[in-house]
Design brief:
- The chain is built from 6 helices and 18 strands.
- A hairpin with a 5-residue loop joins β7 and β8.
- It has a 7-stranded antiparallel sheet with strand order 12-18-17-16-15-14-13, with helices on one face. A 4-stranded antiparallel sheet has the order 2-3-4-9, with no helix packed on it.
- Helices cover about 20% and strands about 35% of the residues.
- By secondary structure, the protein is of the alpha+beta class.
- The longest helix has about 30 residues.
């Protein structure tokens, strides 16, 4: 179940180097990426209109991309501007171009109707080089349906068990406390207080912890975790805090489906630059990386079990409020797309 009218994270901005062509697959669509001379990213369908050779094997020439099979050259708008040995260029000689923007440190691609590609819908994320923060980032590939990864992020109760020696160390409350879930236009907001938490990766002190994140279509996870003096949660009667925290942690992740059974998971973790030094960041990142390896192991194993008998229904519990709401949002968006005419092509005519 894929929403097409959404911004998908295709990669980190630094992955797309000048003069290089990069191949990516998103929701089963092969794409070819390159940069113009001014640094603007261009995204084409990874298929030349002539003999269907992959354009990702092509060559960047100034602002254009040349197919290296028979030499057809395409302008950034997708029009063919040169066919070697042929002066007449048919109007149909063009490739599909996908809208793309860069925000934070991610390169985003709109996979649906180009006329609906509103940059204002790109979720705000922190750039890796933002001087106000100290962040460390990476990515990993899953052999699993992206929705299973989404489910995992929408239900953090698993921290107490799947990550009992990493992210959930000493925090059984993750499984015991049910969060508040608020529906947004294109996702959900999840909020909870956890009292008397130990912030061990920096120093072993006890705080009340406010955890809140937005989870947005198709799988964008933007979380802030704030530590306050003990008693703050009760003083605020478990309402959202408005005062500055002692320590602010930032976690930003993006789940991008590549095929029906494969996904790419981008993640960054860190804190305000004044809250953490490089050694502490490295320690935090090590815990995160180990925990995400734990997630990957169990989710890929879960996918194998599901595929043995796809007709079996899962048993819902109170843990599942977030995943259930989000899957409903996805389903509603997919249904609206199938009912509306799609103008997916962005090709010069």
């Amino acid at each position: 179940m894929w929403v097409r009218n959404a911004w998908y994270v295709a990669g980190w901005s630094h992955e797309l180097e000048a003069g290089k062509v990069v191949a990516r697959t998103i929701i089963n669509d092969p794409l070819a990426f390159y940069r113009k001379q001014d640094g603007t990213a261009v995204v084409f369908e990874d298929r030349c209109c002539h003999r269907f050779a992959p354009l990702s094997k092509g060559r960047v020439e100034q602002d254009d991309l040349r197919c290296m099979y028979h030499g057809l050259k395409f302008a950034p708008d997708g029009r063919c501007v040169e066919i070697p040995g042929q002066s007449l260029i048919p109007q149909s000689a063009a490739v599909r171009r996908y809208p793309a923007v860069e925000s934070g440190s991610w390169l985003w691609v709109w996979m649906g109707d180009a006329a609906l590609a509103d940059p204002a819908l790109v979720p705000a994320s922190i750039a890796l080089d933002d001087p106000g923060y100290r962040l460390k980032a990476s990515q990993m590939d899953y052999a699993a349906d992206y929705q299973l990864i989404d489910d995992n992020l929408l239900d953090l109760s698993h921290l107490s068990y799947a990550h009992e020696k990493t992210l959930g160390l000493g925090s059984p409350q993750w499984a015991d406390e049910r969060p508040r879930i608020i529906r947004l236009d294109r996702g959900v907001r999840v909020q909870r207080w956890l009292r008397n938490q130990v912030r061990g990766y920096v120093r072993n002190e006890t705080y009340d912890m406010w955890n809140a994140y937005d989870f947005l279509v198709p799988g964008i996870f933007l979380m802030r975790t704030a530590w306050y003096a003990p008693g703050t949660a009760d003083r605020l009667q478990l309402k959202p805090p408005t005062e500055a925290p002692v320590f602010l942690r930032c976690d930003e992740q993006a789940v991008t489906p590549t095929t029906a059974r494969s996904s790419r998971y981008f993640f960054a973790t860190g804190a305000r630059s004044g809250d953490i030094d490089q050694t502490q960041l490295d320690r935090m990142y090590g815990v995160v990386e180990a925990a995400f390896g734990e997630d990957k192991d169990i989710i890929e194993a879960q996918q194998i079990v599901i595929d043995r008998d796809p007709t079996r229904r899962m048993l819902p519990t109170s843990f599942d409020a977030g995943p259930t709401q989000f899957r409903r949002i996805l389903q509603e968006m997919v249904e609206r797309e199938t009912q509306a005419p799609q103008r997916t092509a962005a090709v010069a005519q």
